[in-house]
Specification:
By secondary structure, the chain is an alpha/beta fold. It is built from eleven helices and ten strands.
């Protein structure tokens, strides 16, 4: 991983604001294994940093928050084990005591959407779109915890549309469904909205925020846990012909021919 694949800034958008930028615009900010590893370590450090009140996540380039995972990384390890390991990073992000905000400017799909739905708040530019078009692109499946987090944020109807119809959801529809705190015109307005949110959070009771987050997560964990036997189901998917074809076609920049 290039040292520049993740950019970390502090206080640019206000005192106590930690800003993390996914910086692979040439790849629509797709996550690599090394980026996930660095994020896991960052969340461990941030959880103990009392000087940070707000964590902002965003993508570079103006075209994507993040467009999923770097597919070639799935070829280097057991795919289900890799997905389980990634989920541990999501859980660390979700459990942060600080308020986390996804600042979305562009497409937010796959792993990018999983990151955004594990944040407390989401703000997006009007041209942004959200989804999990994996039935049309890779032929894999989401883990239950990631699926249920999407359902909790976007609602069941939009989650079904994302996954079963492979449609991307426009920012305005996401806002109307309650998934977004605000929709703004452009990147400049996005910064202004994030700064305003951060300023209000900085003036709030840290005890109230941390207690509320603990209560919400404690209530959600049992409802969003994986079903019995899910790992076996996922191993069938990731070991099947459709996923192999999806990876082959993606790397070859071709349209997959699924037969499952």
């Amino acid at each position: 991983m290039s040292a520049d694949d993740l950019l970390i800034d502090r206080d640019r958008l206000g005192a106590g604001v930690l800003e993390v930028t996914f910086n692979r615009p040439e790849r629509r900010n797709a996550f690599t294994k090394d980026m996930y590893l660095r994020l896991r370590d960052l969340w461990d450090v941030t959880a103990r940093d009392r000087g940070v009140r707000v964590v902002v996540l965003r993508g570079a380039g103006g075209k994507a928050f993040a467009a999923g995972n770097e597919i070639s990384d799935f070829l280097e390890a057991d795919a289900v084990d890799y997905e389980n390991w990634i989920r541990e990073m999501f859980d660390r992000l979700w459990a942060l005591p600080q308020v986390t905000i996804a600042a979305v400017d562009g497409v937010c799909v796959g792993g990018g959407l999983a990151v955004a739905t594990h944040c407390d708040l989401r703000v997006a530019t009007s041209a942004s779109r959200f989804g999990y078009p994996i039935a049309r692109t890779l032929g894999n499946a989401l883990s239950g915890t990631v699926l249920y987090r999407c359902q909790a944020i976007f609602g069941e109807s939009l989650t079904r549309e994302m996954l079963l119809a492979s449609r991307l959801v426009a920012a305005e529809r996401a806002y109307n469904a309650g998934a977004l705190t605000a929709v703004v015109d452009d990147a400049t307005a996005l910064d202004a909205e994030i700064a305003a949110l951060a300023d209000g959070i900085a003036q709030a009771s840290r005890v109230t925020i941390e207690t509320t987050k603990h209560q919400l997560i404690s209530r959600a964990r049992p409802a969003e846990s994986s079903i019995a036997g899910e790992e076996d189901l996922l191993r069938e998917v990731y070991g099947g012909a459709d996923f192999a074809e999806g990876v082959r076609a993606f790397l070859a920049k071709e349209r997959p021919a699924f037969k499952g």
